[in-house]
Amino acid sequence: MRILLAEDETLLSDQIKTLLISEGRAVDVAFDGDEAHFLGETEPYDVIILDIGLPGQDGISVLKKWRSAGVDTPVLILTARDGWSDRVDGLDAGADDYMTKPFNMSELAARVRAMLRRSSGQTNPLFEKGNFVFDTRTGRVTLDGIPVDLTSQEVAVLSYLIHNSGRLISRTELSEHIYAYDGDRDSNTIAVFITRLRKKLGTELIQTIRGRGYMVDAA
Ligand code: CA
Questions:
Q1: Helix, coil or strand: residue 149
Q2: How confident is the prediction for the chain on average, in pLDDT?
Q3: How far is the CA of 12 from the centre of ligand 1 (A)?
Q4: Secondary structure of residue 160 in the 3-state scheme
Q5: Higher pLDDT, 182 or 134
Q6: How many Å lie between the centroid of ligand 1 and the Cα of residue 5?
């Protein structure tokens, strides 16, 4: 799952980025409103974290532009402690959730996970199918209750397919959602990850539709 983080305080931005990467997300960072606006409108993100107090265009203006341009990505806004009017304006402009600075990093991570679940229409944090269970909170996988060892990239691929279960996903779409903007994208490596996942999880879970992509059936 790929996330845009628009936050101009470098220390906070680094902390959030590190946290999200540790959860297996691909993260692009914008340090001002113009860059955030451009990236959010041109790249396919699964969640956007948007500071309201950005240099250049402020966060509320950026959010309004995205929404009027039809960008419907879930947006979490970050506001100052006394910024109740920013929270009201942000929610009215189309934000899905907010956090007030300073905040707890675990709470931010949990809110992002909840937004990803909501946007995929999955209310249960566990995705279960036969003997297969994927925990969207931890990225852990079990087969018949036994943990399966997956690499972070295998988890990233699996997580995107599961959050979009019931839908055919092309290799291009997968690579756009598991690699950051400056990531080394190669759709051939996607095929390699899928092969490894099918080897570890059995061939039933991930269907390959020749020449078109991959699909995990809804739970
Ligand atoms: Ca700021």
A1: coil
A2: 94
A3: 10
A4: helix
A5: 134
A6: 12
